[in-house]
Amino acid sequence: MEFRRLYRELRARYADAPAVFESIIKDVYLKVLSPGSVAIDCGAHTGKHTLPMAGAVGHLGHVFAFEPITEKCNILERRLEAGGFKNVTLINAVLGDVGRPEVRFNYVKNDPGKSASVLRTGLRETANVQELALPQTTVDAECNRKEDCRFVKIDVEGAEFHVMRGLIETLKVGTPVIHFECGLETLGLHGAQPEEVFNLLRDLGYELCDLLGHDLENAAIFLDSLRAAGLYDYFAFPPYVDRRIVSNISHRHFPNFSQSL
Fold first, then answer.
1. How far apart are CA 153 and CA 51, in angstroms?
2. How far is Cα 214 from Cα 222, in angstroms, rounded to an integer?
3. 87 CB contacts (<8 Å, ≥6 apart)?
4. Where does residue 258 fall: left (phi above 0), alpha (psi -120 to 50 degrees), or beta otherwise?
5. Pick from 233, 223, 182, 168: nearest CA to 25
6. CATH number of the domain located at residue range(s) 3-253 in this protein
7. How do residues 191-245 score in pLDDT, each as one tens digit?
8. How many Å apart are CA 221 and CA 155, to the nearest integer?
9. d(CA 69, CA 250)
10. How many CB atoms lie within 10 A of CB 2?
11. Structure pTM?
């Protein structure tokens, strides 16, 4: 499939594509969430998505937001207080598949979005990196309303597979829609393979698509999309949710762009 051509054309035509990608993600979870729902934000940073999620689920719902960088947690905490949000639990910890008292985490101070347990190739030589010692937890250990979970966002710079393994019970009980970022290099640096991500989700009954709504019917097609690069956002849908909402929302944001493969 011609993912590489499509993704490159999209990036070339829309200079603001990364910002639009974030808007598509937001529109999807606003479609899925309702008052009383639970949302989980893995890699909350300063709350770009945590705050809209908190607004969408209302006072009867709840958001569990995970962010390993204390500095970013403090900013998010102040934003939540300023907005009057009392329905967010903020956890300052690294996420993984098991809990640990302490793990090493690399905070890239001049490019925080690339902070990770394992840095990208060459980044340590060029970036301002501070090594932090932080506790590690799992989503399953922290989320006490699994049955109400309707959306999970995972942006963890390569640790996607391990984070998913640490929320298996939440996925089984709540069957939420999942958004996750994924790249071949960062995934591999964390010791995981695309087939493992695909099979974990498929075994739980999920169907995958890319940010434009293209169905990823098997592990080979998912791998083709990852190899194309340029678009790193994916969704996984349980059977009860129509995944065409992604293609419909994507077409609204890119109205004059042919998304056919």
1. 13
2. 10
3. 54, 57, 58, 59, 61, 62, 63
4. beta
5. 233
6. 3.40.50.150
7. 999 999 999 999 999 999 999 999 999 999 999 999 999 899 999 999 999 989 9
8. 21
9. 31
10. 12
11. 0.96
